[in-house]
Amino acid sequence: MRSIKHIAASVSVLFLTLSAICSGQAVPGNDENIPYLMTFGKDGHETSWGDDDFSETFFFTIPKEYKEPFYIRVYDPDVGGNTDELNGYWDTKMQYTILGGKGCYTNPDAKGTDPVGNYKSGTVLASRVFGVDPKYDEKWFTFGPFNPADGEYYPKWSCYIFKIVCDGISGNDGNLYKYFLSKKSDDNVPIQGANAFTHEYTFRMWNSNDTSYVSHIYPYIDSGCIYVRQRNFDWDSDGDFIVVSVVRKGQKQPTSGDNDWAEGRIQVLPDEIGKSLDFRFYKRKDFLVKNNNVVVSVQNQYGENLPFFTVPIGGVPVYKPRIKVTKK
Amino acid sequence: MVATLPVLLSGQSSYEVKQLTTISGSSDDIIAAVIKNGIVFCSNRKTSPLVTRKNLQGQRLYDFYFAPFNSKKEVGKPEPFANELKGKFNLGPGSFSPDGKEFYFTRNYNSGKSRKVKGETDKYGIFIAHKSGADWINVTPFDYNDQRYRLAYPFISGDGKYLFFSSDMDGSLGKSDIFVCENIDGKWSRPVNVGPAVNSSSSEVYPFFSSSGRLYFSSDRKGGKGGLDIYYSIKQGDGWSAPILMDEPINSKGDDFAFYTLSSDQTGYFSSDRNRKGDDDIYSFKHTILRWAACDTLKKDSYCYEFVEETALLSDSSGMEFKWQWDFGDGTKADGITATHCFAGPGSYYVQLNFINLITGKVELNQASYLLDVERIVQPYITSQDVAIVGEDLKMDASLTNLPGWDVDTYYWNFDDDTYLTGSEVSKKFKRSGKFNIQLIISSIPDDAGNVKEACVCKDIVIKERKK
């Protein structure tokens, strides 16, 4: 059940200047190298396929200076055809809901990891259900136009926030899809300074046992973080998960097996505050784990969910070695 | 071709000696101590045309005098010192405690039969005066005074740790021996004879322990130049080296005694009756052999370095899926967040840090680099054996000296045995065994402004007797 967490000593203060971030609203992001987002139909509650809650929420941030209409585009929104995962026969329906307005992001239920409570807080701006529909197989569907002012204004980041929720409302097949926040309805044209984030990332791993296929997600480490706890689901022991930062070359994290959770605590170093970590996923090389779908979230020491930005805040963290030489 | 190495010329004197004419006269003058602004000495000089203080035998009594330094550090006209100590006895040589608050001096036990200190047979002991303002008062006898014996010529080492004196007390090997007490928690330990290496069946008097580790003393033993001669022994662990007779002009056919050194034995004073007029005069001396008081010890060139990747130390290294690999730029590599490497020699080395991904096996080349200039230590350099044999040639070479930008004018070798040589390569025969602190002093050709640069390194060399 989604709980409203009242945390007195909240440290979730993001002093971000999102307009300074480079543009790029592909979800998954270019630096993430993730093939698809993944949501399964909820019937039968078959979590062992790699989706713990049959719902995925993403937020889009649009700088307040941007006044033009924009679109949210979904790639392969249907469930069927070439780019989805069949379970028995195609019987799954996906509902995409786009929300804005007050509470869209600031409602505590919106910041959870499970589709419980008022997780679809805010004002519904658009909604559509997709089933098997060859017309949209491996094609883009466009929501909008939307007025940026219809989002929830978030002064701390000087931006408007929109939310898109994908719910697997029926069936049990897997939906593979992508998003793009675009200036145009028929093309993917990014909005400068915009970004996207989620608090729980459910995605498809590469269908390859080549270790050069490395996926990344980038949790932002806010001031006040002492340690974070990553949780991952249904990893199927598929390779290695390491944490990289500007001061951490690559530290191994525990990964889950089939249909279970694993978690690991990461002590935050001072130089990691105000930057992103790089959660890096290497595919297993001795054995191909096919169609592997996984779930990842990360919380700070108070249990608050930290955001994974598709364009990492502060850039992709690169380890910075420093050599000291002393004469013996 | 065989190079001819410089050798020490025989007959070279290593000291310049000068009589202190401002003090000298028809009296006997014996150096006691050098203080900040002058010298303290004892003298039996006549100070008043009307009154002459004599003992019962009609000999003038010794008192203390102070002769201040002038601006050129020359000794000026003397004036009485510590008048309050005067009495019907001789005030002999003495020594100040390091804090200047106590004055240890020689004095007759019995004032009524006082006689001249040097060479006389009256009994005398060591007494201690305590400073109060400008006066020396509250005279107390030394704990180990014994009226059966003579105790004289006290000398307190510069660190206050030892008190040397001369005595014929129990345990003496000759007519008069050097004894030493150790300062233990502010109290002088029971006197110990410094041993047969120093003391002989003759008389050993006027001890002076230099900061250089030499114990200077005077003795009338056989084999000297005549009368009392000045010798020194070098402290070696708990013992002393065999005494070394100082050359002329320190010693003469007359009595030479009360040797007092300054500036690491480079300058000082002593007393002598060499003028053959029958009285003792004070002489200053200057070592003509160059020797630095503070000379750097020769450092061995090392080309070993420790390399640390500091960022890695910030986090726990457990579970790290990378290996740190150092490429030292000389064809060698080492693994680890820290690594130590010794290069073969001087040079410029481009050190690179690679990371090896333990998951993929991929090598991330040159993730950090460091251009390391491995250089020799900037110093004069002595190449020689560390151990040599008495009487055999020991070659010393300064050619590996590393003083960039210097136009060397002179290589000067001080062998710590009152001899020296010049030249970048020298050959030396030591006449005795022991440990010698060799100094190599290099001076440059004067620059356009006339400035000369000098640098010094020293190295200990052990000279041994050849095994029979």
Which oligomeric form is depicted?
Answer: heterodimer
**Cα radius of gyration of chain A in angstroms:** 19 Å
How many angstroms separate the termini of chain A?
Answer: 61 Å
Global geometry of chain B = elongated
> Quick check: average pLDDT of chain A?
91
Radius of gyration of chain B: 30 Å
Structural class of chain B: mainly beta
Q: What percent of the residues of chain B sit in helical stretches (DSSP H or I)?
A: under 10%
**How many E-type strands of chain B?**
36
Structural class of chain A: mainly beta
Please give a structural write-up.
The complex is a heterodimer of chains A (328) and B (468). With 328 residues, chain A is an all-beta fold. Chain A is built from no helices and 23 strands. With 468 residues, chain B is mainly β. Chain B has strands at residues 15-19, 29-35, 38-43, 63-68, 79-80, 91-96, 102-108, 124-132, 135-141, 151-156, 162-167, 177-184, 187-188, 192-193, 204-209, 214-219, 229-236, 239-240, 244-245, 256-262, 267-272, 281-287, 296-297, 304-309, 322-327, 333-335, 338-342, 347-357, 363-374, 387-389, 393-397, 408-414, 420-422, 425-429, 434-444, 454-464. Chain B is elongated, with a radius of gyration of 30 Å. Strand 23 (323-327) of chain A pairs antiparallel with strand 24 of chain B.
